[in-house]
Amino acid sequence: MSVKDDLEARSGSTCELCTATNNLEVFEVEPVSISGVDSSILACETCRTQIEDPEQMDPNHWRCLNDSMWSEYDSVKVVAWRMLSRLKSEGWPKDLLDMMYLEPETLDWAKATGEGLAEADKIIHRDVNGVILENGDSVVLVKDLKIKGSSQVAKQGTAVRRISLDRENAEYIEGKVGPTLTVIITKYVKKI
Fold it and tell me: Is the residue at 117 inside a domain?
């Protein structure tokens, strides 16, 4: 069975956020350390569009979170928490957030994208040129780097795809150089 089939079985072929039944697709909940059912939800086009583009937010659409925030699945709760955090200036989402409880590791996952933080408190990762880096971006090394714990040297110009951002330090990202997952300092990379 595919991830979509598993999610359809789990959700009864409805959007796990608003219960819509049309235009359902798999939505991976960032950051994705392992892809699959546990890190994904089944979401309709309306929900996906508004999650990905805050400019298209319709606060009334998200009143559905009153029900979906109680889901037994962490990926659904994480998205519900993030959307409620994004909308908390509306008033009613703040009340729902106050009622919501997430286990510490699930709350860390929910906060991993910086949702719910004031702009001044967000950790922003920038490359050598000051361009903002996001989870999943591809970068290229701007100088030769020795891979710690290995005799390997990553040459200038090496592409590192699908990077992950360090949630606590704006100077560190993680990515695979060859088969090795390594930490890279942001001042040594340029976004592709």
Answer: no
